[in-house]
Amino acid sequence: MAIAIATQKTAALTGNEAAAQALRQINPDVVAAYPITPQTEIVQLFSTFVSDGLVKTEFVAVESEHSAMSATVGAAAAGARAMTATSSQGLALMWEMLYVAAGMRIPIVMPMVNRALSSPINIHCDHSDSMGARDSGWLQIYSENAQEMYDNLIQAVRIAEHPDVLLPVMVTMDGFIISHGMENVELLPDQAVQDFVGEYNFPYPLLDVEHPRTLGPLTLQDFYFEHKREQAEAVYRAKEVILAAAEEYAAISGRRYGFFEAYRMDDAEYAVVVLGSTAGTAKYVVDGLRQAGEKCGLVKVRVFRPFPGPELCEALSGLKAVGIMDRADTFSTQGGPLFLEVKAALYHAAGQPQCMNFVYGLGGRDIDPELIRQAFVEVKDLMKKPADGVLPIVRYLGVRE
Amino acid sequence: MTLSSQTKNLLKAHEEVDAKIEPNAGWRDLPIGAVIPQGGTATQFATGDWRTIRPVWSKEKCINCHRCWLYCPDMSWISEDGRIQGVDLTYCKGCGICANVCPTKVHAIEMHPEDDFKEDEAAKEGGK
Questions:
Q1: B37 touching A, CB under 8 A?
Q2: pTM score, whole prediction
Q3: Cβ-Cβ contacts under 8 Å, A199 against chain B
């Protein structure tokens, strides 16, 4: 669909197509990217927008993801709004430059299509790729469906570029499940997106030759710590900016976002916490259980970095038991990454709920309503009979024994 | 757009091109992302303090072939009117390339451990 959009419209799009449309409407100055399944389609479609003259973007076909992120950092530092996209091994190859982008405070926005990491090689969804980058200094926003991917990408531009933040943001969606699944997506008019994202104003562009600057210098024992401390503070400040961007976005789209979505949590006694596309299936399961009289709910975490610890603590502290579902393992014997974060947040909760972890869906293993129902049953059992065995409780859900 | 007071502070540090960054500046007063609001700042980094061995030059033995001057990676050798004047140690890391390329028969440059000069310099400091 290589056409300009003048008015709000609904279109049947895959997650990748929705992401490509968001990129077209953002109309970045530079895109440098390398193909990798399941992200390939985003930049492939975007490159047709470039050749069709629908965007003013300089498209750089680089030879690797390490170069893609390097070129994107360089372009953004020069004063261009620059973007790239990747998945899995591509993100792994960007590793070095991810930290450079965050430390140099380069506000890049990157669609990241979740896919399992090798080995064994696998092209399907899990969160091991983005979870590995969770401490790289990038902000991370997870999307449940194609609509959220589109909405999150547009908001991410405002979040990343806000002078209180100036940090790169990766916006993720589940590989194939969302990236290649077709849904109805509400698209904003091009002009509305342009007005929302505004002009890119990097505070210290290298191409401002009247004001020469040194970017990415050497700092040793004397200054490095102070710069990292400021970087940490920017992540705190990002929380307010994320909510303000969501508020403004709701005004133009009618779609409202927060750090997480609490689904049927009002009088819930037990709940499950998830990331990404699994939330859609889990909501269906919650609806069924609610109909059967179960007091259960769901929390879908949208913003993983910054992690909304105090807010989640408040939302979950009245519960008796919580099951945290992870589509990645930390291989630490302590459970998945979301489990670790949620449990740490709950340490300060009054009347700590019992917690257990479900690692599921690795390498794209299907997560169906029956498996999620099984998770809810286990969480309910935990509520009735607190754990007295080995902690932490980590279950591998849907694996063949 | 409302900005936090810290961001205003940090952006101000960028605008003041000649602003001196104090060695004891706290994290709230440094430019964002370690940006230095000047160009060509590498010249202010006296990398000579990495040196553990130092070239010592003999004016008498030197034949002014300029090999040291040509090969030095830090442009530490000083030449005026076609004659070597000596070595500026500000950026000299003591790599020893100059001593190595100095013709064997000439042997005008010798590398000496920095320890050999410690007493001299302490005396000089004391004299100031």
A1: yes
A2: 0.90
A3: none
Give the ipTM: 0.86
Residue A324, strand partner residues: A273, A357
Which pLDDT tens digit goes with each residue over A358-389?
999 999 999 999 999 999 999 999 998 877 77
Q: Is A201 on the interface with B (CB under 8 A)?
A: no
CA distance A312 to chain B (A): 25
Distance from CA of B3 to the nearest CA of A (A): 6
Note the pLDDT tens digit of each residue in B20-40. 778 899 999 898 999 988 888
| Interchain CB distance below 8 Å, A214 and B26 | no
Do A265 and A316 have their domain in common?
A: yes
Tell me how far apart the alpha carbons of residues A161 and A238 are, in angstroms, rounded to a whole number: 10
Q: Distance, in angstroms, between B54 CA and closest chain A CA? A: 24
The residue among A234, A253, A272 that closes a domain is A253
Q: Domain range holding A228?
A: 9-202+221-253
Chain B partners within 8 Å of A168 (Cβ): none
Query: How many domains does chain A contain in total?
Result: 2
A160 and A277 in a common domain: no
Count of Cβ atoms closer than 10 Å to residue A217 Cβ: 16
CATH number at residue A42: 3.40.50.970
Partners of B38 on chain A (C-beta within 8 Å) are: 212-214
Residues on chain A touching B5 (C-beta within 8 angstroms): none
Q: Report CA A379 to chain centroid distance, whole Å.
A: 26
Q: pLDDT tens-digit profile of A281-337?
A: 999 999 999 999 999 999 999 999 999 999 999 999 999 999 999 999 999 999 999
| Terminal C-alpha separation, chain B | 55
Tell me how far CA of residue A183 lies from CA of A14, A17, A305, in angstroms.
6, 10, 27
* Closest CB to B32 among A211, A212, A230: A230
- Which amino acid makes up residue A38? P
Residue A69 lies in a domain: yes
* Per-residue model confidence as pLDDT tens digits over A233-278: 999 999 999 999 999 999 999 999 999 999 999 999 999 999 999 9
Residues 6+ apart with CB under 8 A from A36: A65, A86, A87, A88, A89, A90
Q: What is the total residue count of chain B?
A: 128
Structure tokens at B66: 């300029």
A214 close to B (CB below 8 A): yes
Nearest to B3 among A104, A163, A214 (CB): A163
Q: Do B34 and A217 touch (CB under 8 A)?
A: yes
In the block, residue with structure tokens 């307010």: A240
Q: B46-116 adopts what CATH topology?
A: Alpha-Beta Plaits (3.30.70)
